[in-house]
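tool_call: predict_structure(chain=1)
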Amino acid sequence: MIAFPYDYFLLAWFAIALSSAAYVAYDQFAGNPEPTVMKWAFVLVTLYMGPFGLLLYVLADKEPRPGEHERFTSPLWKQGVGSTIHCVAGDATGIILAAATTALLGLPMWIDLIVEYLAGFSFGLFIFQSLFMKKMMGGSYWQNVKMSFMPEFISMNSMMAGMAPTMSLLMMGRDMRAMDPLELVFWGVMSLGVIVGFATAYPFNVWMAGAGVKHGLMTERRSASTKRSGGHDGGGRQQGEHGGSGMKSEATAPQLAALAGVTGFLLVTGMVWPGFHVNLSLSARDVDGAIMPPGMINTFELPAAAMREMAAVKPRQVGYEAPNTARGDQALQPRLENGVKVFDIEASVIRWNILPDVTMQAYAYNRQIPGPRLELTEGDHVRINVRNTLPESTTVHWHGLILPNEMDGPAKVTQAPIPPGGSYSYEYTVGQHGTYFYHSHDHPDRQQALGLYGALIIQPKDPSAEVKADHEYAIQLQEWLKRERLTYPAMLMEGELPNYFTINGKAYPATDSVPMKIGQTIKLRFIGTNNNFVHPMHVHGGPFQVVAVDGITLSESARYQADTVNVGPGQRYDVIWTARKAGKWLVHCHIPHHTANNNVEQDGGGGLMLVLNVQ
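tool_result:
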């Protein structure tokens, strides 16, 4: 999935890595005079480290001119490169294979790290060292295992000490696609981990190559009369493997014990330290490739469910792109079945324009935000069929209505959640009138914030009970968070604060301009559909009369004049405003930040603003 600009960088990185590895393979097998195991080691490491592997090969190992490989590779720093290359080729291969396997199996991260260590150590010791080097080392396979154990232990510890924290902190950081082997960023983290592991293992391998504990770079020439094996360190001593090819270790037991102890300490630190910062008890399946918002506070106690709730909508889940001109809150016409008004609603993932140049990956009912307006009359019997095509379960709650408990909608309280691909029918008789709304009641902090809500306007059975006006307009309020091209559910918490605000799914200046004439009245139905904030909604051009609160029509004696109402989450206010003078009269939230688009004013404002255009 392409989600961030660095995904394009990763595509370029791996193209370079493949071409670099192809060049190294060609050049090695075309005649670079060294053993086959080292040829493959350089190819693998270049595949993992990209141009850095190619650089090491060219600077330290590629024979510059015929017959000069022995002299060229003799400096100790180059012998250390060869020793580390051999270590990384085997160990990293085991680690990467184990990481991909454990992730696909859904094992927790801490188990993943242990399995990776064991797999890397085993692959390096039993295959790359003892098996592939057996002919050169001489002796039996198990003798070679015994001789290789300590240098491999030191090398593996030092490399994993660098790889473990790199993988843990990046995989369990903000972009947890890095835990999924089917995502490119997983392989990017593996590549970076190998580079860091090479850097941490290199100093120890330089010492071991200089002390004759490990081989470095070797020269192997084949001709009709001779076969030479062995490179030379800075002192001119012929190099081999643990006594093979004329090599003799100068390391003492205390030196090896000290190296083993220090690298063991570094290993434990690298494995344990990330656990103080990220939750290593989670698996790739738990986090499901979640991409967390910038600024989120991640701790070792943060559960996977919270990560999934706060995560960005995955662009690849978008199933429909609404036209730029699409509007929400469109009345949905029911069909009659034996006297029952039947509505069909589908929840899905769409791409929605809140401004001509600003789109959101969003959740929507019937491909519009807000969802379709349901217009009912007191006494209607209704059936609302809800189909779920979201990537997660959902339900619908009918906010403020008196109805049978099993129709109320709270997930796992009054009904089982509607699974992806599932359906549920809500059926009840409407016994109230006024301004109401419907919204998701499963993962509501996520689903409402991404667009799952709509107006429910119920007319009274007795038309005289309705407070009349020349015009009506519902104002449904929502906050949005968009960063780095991704849409996150806006919440009142770290990293989730909104930067866009909409009325009926559009931000000013893309909001409606309502035409009126002097002397006409308009009923504004303010609905707190998804607002984490209390929005003080103000109308220019004179006061209005508050005639209903939360769907309840106020008696004439209880009605009052105001020019601002504080619309809290879930609240509704019906107000009647009279057009007294010609002009463009604003309706807006009186929190200035909420009348800007990503902190920028456009054409005099943004966000929660619309115009009553009185002629």
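agent: The two ends are 51 Å apart (CA to CA). Proceeding to next step.
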